[in-house]
Amino acid sequence: MSIEIRLENFSGPLDLLLHLIKTNEMDIYDIQVVAITKQYLAIIEQMKQLDLDAAGEFLLMAATLIHIKSRMLLPASEEMADEEEVDPRAELVRRLLEYQRYKGAAETLEKLPQLDRDVFVGQFFPADILEAETDDEVAVGIYQLADAFHRLLKEIPAEVFHEIVREQYSVAEHMSLLLDRLSAAERLAFRDIFATRSIRPTRQELVVTFLAVLELVKIRVVKIEQVAAFGEIWLLLAVQDGISAVTDLGEAALGYE
Fold this sequence. Notes:
Layout: H1 13-23, H2 33-44, H3 52-73, H4 78-82, H5 90-111, H6 142-155, H7 171-184, E1 188-189, H8 203-218, E2 222-226, E3 233-237, H9 242-246, H10 251-254
Antiparallel strand pairs: 1-3, 2-3
Helix pairs in contact: 1-5, 2-3, 7-8
């Protein structure tokens, strides 16, 4: 059998031996040492083009194969005949099996996605996540609302007062304003509901507006939806006539006397 092999394609002598065993369809537990040694030595001839350091391990394996071959060809001594005969190939088979296991594990790991090669990690920002085009909704609770409101507050710069102006912010009034806007629109983004009276609302106004949202959700006049995790939070009317449902509610009824 004529085999053309480039030694540069193999990581070492055990790798080359495994290749020869598979190519010749041999049983690794019953290696035909004579045939394998002949092929191996023929391949070693190609090492004339390699430096001595690169050829060292391959030459050592060649010597091992020749030793095993000679032991198998020589008749057993009388002393060895009385004892259980040890297969001269046993140690080589053990090394080949061990190498085969490590090689298989390495190939399995190589197929897995590797960081910075197949997988690239970027900074994670919830605002960067696009809403999934699906009708499935993500459950939104008070904690999600509070977290969204906290992020919004962080965007508001610290207020600088040049004069003291007393402004009255009514929760009930903000509830009515929100219901007016929801009646005119199919839905409102949570972030957009805070743009009510001024271009840059104060922190106090934001807090009162947020309380108004919580009250509307509490009395089930408004419902909140989120299409995807960390996506935009939307407010929608939960009843046909939301304004009528809260017309008679005053500050006392809401607990803000």
